[in-house]
Structures are given as structure tokens and as C-alpha cells.
């Protein structure tokens, strides 16, 4: 009889749960204890974490890359640039050796500013003059360089605009009115020059410029060098 009453009690209890809201708790029927737990709604799935913005790599601080896509390399504090070439003009034809050196004095992401020395050695093979027979020209000039970076250009690293001024020491023979040559001596003239250096990705340099000859006549210069 007790088992029958227990069965009926459990049957009516679950029927009551169908019609009413289920309560959390423990229910004891004589020697049987029933524990009910409230149904929980499924927890929402966590949203996928947003892709973190790309942080600059350790090398970006030096090259100035960032997320803009442009590459700005850290400028050299000092460079030295030997070159060989030739010139033409009043000197007709002359082999040329040059040595440029520059110290960084200021810079922006686009332009590096250098000051330094421009040393040139010429061997004039002939000249358009009958008053002087040049043998050797040695130039000592101070120069300023505006090294303009080209960003991501695949071939040219920078374009250097340079201006120089200094002293031209010309060694050669003076010729008199009858064509007689005097003993070789040194003549001094003011020297100046301006031009463009194209610095390629492998640091080869194409130098194009105008240099003074006899102190005032412009002479064209073409040279190939390397920037260390």
C-alpha cells in the first residue's frame, strides 16, 4: 500500500511540473529524496576576437616602414663615394677621378642633408685655348647634398642634389703670343660645381654635373661610382 501511495504521489508531482513552473530544490517523499534543477539557457558562444592590428616590427623603428607601405631607411651618418669618369667642354676631353664624403647634419623621412668635401682630379688631354696648356687640375671643394629618398622605387634608392664651391689648382704651361711655352706652374682659380647623383639600390652611383674650368666656364662631368 505504501508503494502504491508513493507511486501516485510521484505521478501527480510530475503532472504538476508540466502545468507549473519548475522550482529548484529538493523534495522528499518518505525515504525517497528528489532534487530538481532549473533548466539553464545555453550560454552564448564567445564572439571571435577581432584581429589585432599589426604592431610594428622591431626593424620598423629603424627603417620607418609602419603600416603606410612606404619604406624610409635610416640614413647613414657618414658616407664616402669614390667615382671614375670623364668630362667635356672647354677641356675637350678629360679623364676624371673624384672622391666625395658627407656627414649627416639633419634629416626628415624624405630628405637627408649632408655637408662634406668634394675632391676631383682631372687630366685634361687638350683644351680650347692657345694661352695655356693644362696638365693637371686638382679641385678641393666644400659641398652640400640634399639626398632625396625615392620610397619604394625598385631601382633608385635616392636622388642627391649637390652644390659645391672651393679652389681649383691648375698645373700647366703658359703660352705666349708666339706659341712659346713657359715652365709649368700652378694657377689658382675659384671652383664651383652642381649636379645630381643617382644612387641605385645596390649603392652604385651615376654622377651627372657641371664643374668649372678656368674658374668660370662650365664643363660637363659624367662618372660612375659607389657609395660606402
Shape: elongated
Annotation, overall tally of beta strands: 10
Q: State the strand order across the main sheet.
A: 3-4-5-6-7-8-9-10
Q: Helix and strand succession?
A: HEEHEEEEEEEE
How does the major sheet shape up?
A: 8 strands, antiparallel, barrel
Helical run tally: 2
- Based on secondary structure, the structural category is mainly beta
* Mean pLDDT rating: 78
Attribute tags:
228 residues, eight-stranded antiparallel β-barrel, two-stranded antiparallel ribbon, 10 strands, elongated
Tell me what you see in this structure:
The chain is mostly beta strands. Helix content is 10%, strand content 53%. It contains 2 helices and 10 strands. The strands form 2 sheets. Strands 3-4-5-6-7-8-9-10 form an 8-stranded antiparallel β-barrel. A hairpin with a 5-residue loop joins strand 3 (78-88) and strand 4 (94-107). It is elongated and about 145 Å long.
Question: What's the arrangement of secondary structure elements?
Answer:
Elements: H1 2-19, E1 25-29, E2 32-36, H2 60-63, E3 78-88, E4 94-107, E5 111-122, E6 132-149, E7 156-174, E8 185-200, E9 204-213, E10 217-226
Antiparallel strand pairs: 1-2, 3-4, 3-10, 4-5, 5-6, 6-7, 7-8, 8-9, 9-10
Task: Put the structure in a nutshell.
This protein has helices at about 1-20, 60-65, and strands at about 25-30, 30-35, 80-90, 95-105, 110-120, 130-150, 155-175, 185-200, 205-215, 215-225. By secondary structure, the protein is mainly beta.
